[in-house]
Specification:
The chain is an all-alpha fold and about 140 residues long. The longest helix has 28 residues. The chain is flat and about 55 Å long.
């Protein structure tokens, strides 16, 4: 990869590469020392999170089936209701997959960030579909 930063640019690339490698090695050692129960819980959480992300990514595209009916209402409240319903479905699915409410402060922060990201994604996809439908 060519950079225009000269020697300092190349040096910073090398340093960042070694830092990333070190973090990966530390994560691997931590995972190895975690024990079978901890590894099982971690992998379970990762797979559940990936399933939630996949469903949350696909869910707003289902709106394409009835976006023209919503646009015919000519009401912003229909769009607000749509985005709220999609976000509520994301929340319910997340609660089901994760087995309930978060148990720690960091869990709540991550959950709220995920719901905020999903809500923003729902809004952006809905806006895109509305534009494509001619609204």
């Amino acid at each position: 990869m060519e950079t225009t930063g000269g020697i300092f640019g190349r040096l910073s690339e090398k340093i960042l590469g070694w830092i990333a490698l070190g973090l990966l090695i530390l994560a691997g050692v931590g995972l190895w020392q975690m024990g079978p129960d901890g590894r099982g819980a971690l992998w379970s959480a990762i797979w559940r999170t990936m399933a939630w992300i996949a469903v949350a990514a696909v869910l707003p595209w289902v709106v394409r089936l009835f976006i023209t009916r919503l646009l015919a209402l000519s009401s912003n409240w229909a769009g607000v209701g749509l985005i709220a319903a999609l976000t509520l479905l994301n929340i319910v699915l997340g609660l089901i997959l994760m087995g309930g409410f978060p148990g720690s402060g960091w869990g709540w922060i991550v959950a709220l960030a995920a719901v905020g990201t999903a809500g923003t994604y729902n809004y952006l996809v809905s806006e895109y579909l509305a534009e494509q439908a001619g609204g």
